[in-house]
């Protein structure tokens, strides 16, 4: 039974504006009081090691290509005619070594196709370990 028919009842509402103001003040406070560390300020002394560098690993097959498309396998100039023939050259250079690491040294101006030729020939020869050489930039 509703005895208060003529009385208007107001619905409760939540005002979000003061809550947003408080959150913004907290955010500004955190931004102002936070200190940011810089990695450049860290002084780190890295350990040093003396290591003898070997000229080449015993189970490597060195293949180089220059900007003119000339191929060299283990310091021997090899003419390139097709991938199957070059694959046989790689197998012959590997000798009795099982799955040598093919180290490819390509000139920066060498064509992309000449490097792909070496990769395809190494795949046909059954060599799965391939590495590339690069030179560090001098300052």
Word description of this protein:
The protein is α/β, with parallel strands linked by helices and 139 residues long. It has a domain at 60-132: Nucleotidyltransferase, domain 5 (2-Layer Sandwich), CATH 3.30.420. The protein has helices at residues 17-33, 83-94, 112-125; strands at 60-65, 71-73, 76-78, 101-106, 130-132. The chain has a five-stranded mixed beta sheet with strand order 3-2-1-4-5, with helices on one face. A hairpin with a 5-residue loop joins strand 1 and strand 2 (71-73). Helix 2 (83-94) crosses helix 3 (112-125). The N and C termini lie far apart (92 Å).
Quick synopsis:
With 139 residues, the protein is an alpha/beta fold. 31% of the residues lie in helices and 15% in strands. The protein contains three helices and five strands, in the order αβββαβαβ.
Which labels suit this protein?
single chain; 139 residues; alpha/beta; Nucleotidyltransferase, domain 5; five-stranded mixed sheet; elongated
Provide the fold topology.
Layout: H1 17-33, E1 60-65, E2 71-73, E3 76-78, H2 83-94, E4 101-106, H3 112-125, E5 130-132
Parallel strand pairs: 1-4, 4-5
Antiparallel strand pairs: 1-2, 2-3
Helix pairs in contact: 2-3
| Total E-strand runs | 5
Q: What structural category arises from helix and sheet content?
A: alpha/beta
Reported CATH architecture of the domain at 60-132: 2-Layer Sandwich
Query: Which CATH first-tier class of the domain at 60-132 would you pick?
Result: Alpha Beta
Largest sheet: 5 strands, mixed
Regions with little confidence, pLDDT below 50 for 5+ residues: none
Order of helices and strands: HEEEHEHE
Residues in β-strands, percent: 15-25%
Helix count from the secondary structure assignment: 3
Shape verdict: elongated
Order of strands across the main sheet: 3-2-1-4-5
CATH topology of the domain at 60-132: Nucleotidyltransferase, domain 5
As a whole number of angstroms, the C-alpha radius of gyration is 35 Å
């Amino acid at each position: 039974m509703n005895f208060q028919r003529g009385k208007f009842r107001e619905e409760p509402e939540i005002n979000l504006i003061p809550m947003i103001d408080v959150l913004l003040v907290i955010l500004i406070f955190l931004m102002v009081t936070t200190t940011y560390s810089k990695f450049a300020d860290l002084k780190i002394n890295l350990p040093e090691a003396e290591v003898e560098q070997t000229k080449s690993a015993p189970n490597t097959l060195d293949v180089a290509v220059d900007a003119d498309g000339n191929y060299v396998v283990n310091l021997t100039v090899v003419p390139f005619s097709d991938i199957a023939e070059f694959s046989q050259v790689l197998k012959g250079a590997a000798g009795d070594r099982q799955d040598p690491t093919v180290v490819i040294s390509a000139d920066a101006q060498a064509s992309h196709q000449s490097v792909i030729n070496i990769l395809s020939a190494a795949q046909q020869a059954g060599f799965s370990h391939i590495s590339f050489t690069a030179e560090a930039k001098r300052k």
